[in-house]
Amino acid sequence: MTRLVRVVDDDEDMRAAQVQTLQLAGFEVQDFAQATKALEGVTADFPSVFLTDVRMPGMDGLELFQRLHAIDPELPVILLTGHGDVPMAVAALKAGAYDFLTKPVARDVLVAAVNRAAGARALVLENRDLRSARHDAAEMFPELSGDSEVIQHLRILLDRVSHAEGNALLIGPPGAGKLIAARAIHRQGPRRARSFVHVACDTMDEARFEGHLMSAESPNLRSTRQPGPLERAQRGILFLDRIDALSAATQARLSAIFEAGEFWPAGAVAPRALDVQLLASSSADPAPMVADGKFDPRLFYRLSAAILPVPGLAQRREDIPALYRHFLLDACARLDRPAPHITEAVKARLSMHNWPGNLPELRGFAESQAMGVSTLKAPQDSDTRGLTDLVAAYEAELIRDALRLARGNATAAMQELRLARKTFYDKLTRHNIKPAEFRQ
Predict the structure, then answer these.
(1) Distance CA 376, CA 343 (A)
(2) What pLDDT was estimated at residue 390?
(3) Cα 244 to Cα 65: distance, rounded to the nearest angstrom
(4) Is residue 225 over pLDDT 90?
């Protein structure tokens, strides 16, 4: 809570008494005999409460309030008035002053009023900081933007976890954006000024996992050790990506470290207290693996307080066009190329393709369009063709995609497309597609 109070009163004895009362109540007090001096250094996010007498020579308390109100309408100003000034103070209250007190004011009344104002100011500044962090996170992580119900729900969960500084497990298909979601938690939360340490568990040498977690060899021959991920994540966030790739034994050791609340850095002569927000990701729900003995239950329960489902594109289809436009414009800006027209064929692909590769696949498609190297062709006279022709053109492209992936194997392609054999070959004939052309 804000503990700074600026006291403004030309009566030296009265001002000294107020300063002493507020200091004994635990406030940091700055006192001024002139209102003009009290304005110095005040900005829109100034973390202070103002307590000012109304009647003063030069700039009076009402003018000071008006000046402060112009800087920030939510800056709390408490007016001290004589009995004859009450109507004036009530008018100021209607204009936005926080409160007014009549002189002489009892100590408990003064402290209570300033406490309320300080709490209100702290809440205002906290909400502004939160809104700013959310805005920054949305700009930094456009992959989490969108109007689908699932992505809106995820954004709410990310915000709650970030400010609670809680452990969490992010579950979703490959490419859905679990790392992006973890970075958003870091960016929005109180630990954003500290490190975000990403450990790709599926690329780790399991035999050396614990040694790597604690420290890493230094390329500098004059030094034998660099801080490992656990040490670098102190007071920040440790993100264990694909934690399900670790063996149950390694997970158990990791869980023991967090349960102990301390760890031994390599070369240390004493353990260090552990202050780390733990995030992890998995492509599948670990709960069945716990039942099968393939996932350490203590680690799972440590993470299971917040299980965040990160949806794939198939679950948020309505967000795909906007995501594509973002990726396209980003690629065009990077390549210094004009943005191409979004053809009907592109629109059809965006709406009908399942995007099993999720965000990386969509980004790759947008970049191919930006570079002008996509094999996706817009139908001729697309502006005059009807829906049937557009769907047929897109259907042919899907069949070609399946044959490319299957390297010309017709059986594998029809299984991928879930088509009956006769239907598949009828479509090949209709679109004049020959599997042999894809076998190179």
Answers:
(1) 10
(2) 67
(3) 59
(4) no
Residue with more model confidence, 345 or 178: 178
DSSP 117-165: HHHHHHHHHHHHHHHHHHHHHHHH-GGG----HHHHHHHHHHHHHHHHT
Hey, what domains does the chain have and what are their CATH numbers? 4-128 (3.40.50.2300), 141-311 (3.40.50.300), 314-438 (no CATH)
Q: How far from 7 is each of 11, 13, 27, 296, 439, CA to CA, in Å?
A: 11, 12, 11, 58, 83
In one letter, which amino acid is 95?
A
pLDDT of 280: 96
Tell me the residue length of the chain: 440
- What integer pLDDT is reported at residue 137 of this predicted model? 52
Is the predicted pLDDT of residue 360 greater than 90, yes or no? yes
Nearest to 39 by CA among 67, 12, 11, 74: 67
Q: What are the phi and psi torsion angles at 428 (to 5°)? A: -60, -45
Q: In angstroms, rounded to a whole number, what is the distance separating the alpha carbons of residues 138 and 134? A: 6
- Measure CA of the first residue to CA of the last residue in the chain; give whole Å: 69
| Structure tokens that stand for 260 in this block | 């102990």
Report whether 53 contacts 61 (CB < 8 A).
yes
Are 185 and 279 in contact by the 8 Å Cβ rule? The answer is yes
Amino acid identity, position 247? S
- What residue has token string 């800087």? 71
What is the spatial distance between Cα 322 and Cα 317, in angstroms, rounded to a whole number? Answer: 10
Q: How far is CA 342 from CA 129, 230, 335, in A?
A: 38, 46, 18
Read out DSSP for 23-78? HHTT-EEEEESSHHHHTTT--TT--EEEEEES--SSS-HHHHHHHHHHH-TTS-EE
Per-residue pLDDT reduced to its tens digit, 64-116 = 999 999 999 999 999 998 877 778 878 888 889 999 898 889 999 999 999 99
Partner residues linked to 2 by β-bridges: none
Pairing verdict, β 262-263 and 4-8: unpaired
Report pTM: 0.57
CA–CA dist 136, 129 (Å, integer):
10
Read off the pLDDT band of 380 (50, 70, 90).
very low
Report strand pairing: 168-171 vs 307-309: parallel
Q: Which one-letter DSSP state was computed for residue 198?
A: E
For the record, the structure tokens of 114 come out as 């300033």
CB of 53 closer than 8 Å to CB of 8: yes
Cα–Cα distance between 418 and 321 in angstroms, integer?
26
